[in-house]
Amino acid sequence: MLVRIGTLIVKELTQFRRDWLLALFILLAPALQLLLLAQAIERGIHEQPLAVLDLDRSRLSRQLVLSLDNTRELRLRFYAGSMDQVRSLLDGGQVRLAVVIPAGFARSPQPIQVIADGTNTVAAAITLSAVSGVVNRLASDLAAGYGLVVPELIDFRTDLRFNPTMNFRDFSIPAQLGFITYQVTLAVASLGLARERELGTLEQLMVTPLRRIELALGKGIPAMAVGALNFAVMWLISLALFRVPMHGSPLLLAALTLLFITAEVHWGLLISAISRTQQQAILFVFIQAMVDIALSGFIVQVRNMPPLLQALSRFVPLQHYLVMIRSIMLKGAGWEELRPQAAALAALSLAAALLALRTVARRVE
Question: Which ranges in the chain are annotated with CATH 3.40.1710.10?
Fold first, then answer.
């Protein structure tokens, strides 16, 4: 049995090596995708274009404008001459935020008008928060300059655990690492039997003394190896290049990743068994990926979904794996904390394996 499976694995790897274009794409594209996505996230919501309409033109208004420009989130791009120009800049998407300083701002308290572009709610919230912080600090400095003391009735202190710098990149890159591993593993596994059927070599495999389980193992193990290799490369890139923290056990992460890859290989074999061509297999992978992304918490947190979708998300292996990889890398979670997710992933993997074996046995007859 082991000899037959080993022979089929060698055959799969040889065929994979001969298709150099596919091999290059599978080995390099995931790392490139991670690099591009991580670089885009690393920039964050910084240096958003700002327009200022200063109707006061006083020393205090210039100090406020300078403080706004010195923030990390904002960058002064335009000095507007009128409200019509402010509206034009916002309508044209040239600025994210506009600040209108009224006349008489330095002589007496005057409301400052802040107009934000709400098409991007995340950027709007961050830039509005930045303006609010600048105005509050300026007011405190002015009060201190006049000798006014504002009593501090509450000593409010915060303590951030796991991600003290609130770096969104550290939260997002582990999820991208899991999702790209999911993509690669599912795609490679889904092409195995579909490629044989399309090339007309599946009948030749059927006349060999291979049993159905041996055929599934011979097709699944190379896909597992490719998925594990891609994960290892991208994990090292995440640690070395982007400095993503690794607070947990690498061995635990590797074991749970292999369990996740095994589950996705089973789903890939199921797709491969029901597909007649490689194009059809990739189409099925694309459809499943859209469903899994929507239900896994990769885009929208699971707890924010309707109850029905929350229930369906429990049957998505990617959802459990994202929880595990973030918990291990950011929180340093151990086996005790991750036992429920690991059990759910193992059950889903077993169910997918039984379904894949049954489908393979029926389809290759």
Answer: 45-145
pLDDT in tens, the chain (365 residues): 776 777 777 777 777 667 677 777 777 888 888 888 777 665 567 788 999 999 988 888 899 899 999 988 899 999 998 899 999 998 888 998 999 998 888 887 778 899 988 887 777 888 888 888 888 888 777 777 665 555 555 555 666 677 776 677 888 899 999 999 999 999 888 888 888 777 777 666 666 667 777 777 888 888 899 999 999 999 999 999 888 889 999 999 999 999 999 999 999 988 988 888 888 898 999 999 999 998 998 888 888 889 999 999 999 999 999 999 999 998 888 999 999 999 999 999 999 989 888 887 675 55
- Sequence-ordered list of residues with C-beta below 8 angstroms from that of 79, at least 6 positions apart, any chain: 51, 52, 53, 54
Q: In sequence order, which ranges of the chain are alpha helices (DSSP H)?
A: 2-18, 20-43, 59-69, 83-91, 121-145, 168-199, 202-206, 212-240, 250-274, 278-296, 307-313, 317-326, 335-363
**Around Cβ 225, how many Cβ atoms within 10 Å?**
16
Amino acid at 45: I
Cα separations (Å) of 26 from 9, 224, 227, 247, 310? 18, 13, 9, 29, 32
CATH 3.40.1710.10 fits 45-145, yes or no: yes
**What is the C-alpha to C-alpha distance for residues 170 and 45, in angstroms, rounded to an integer?**
15
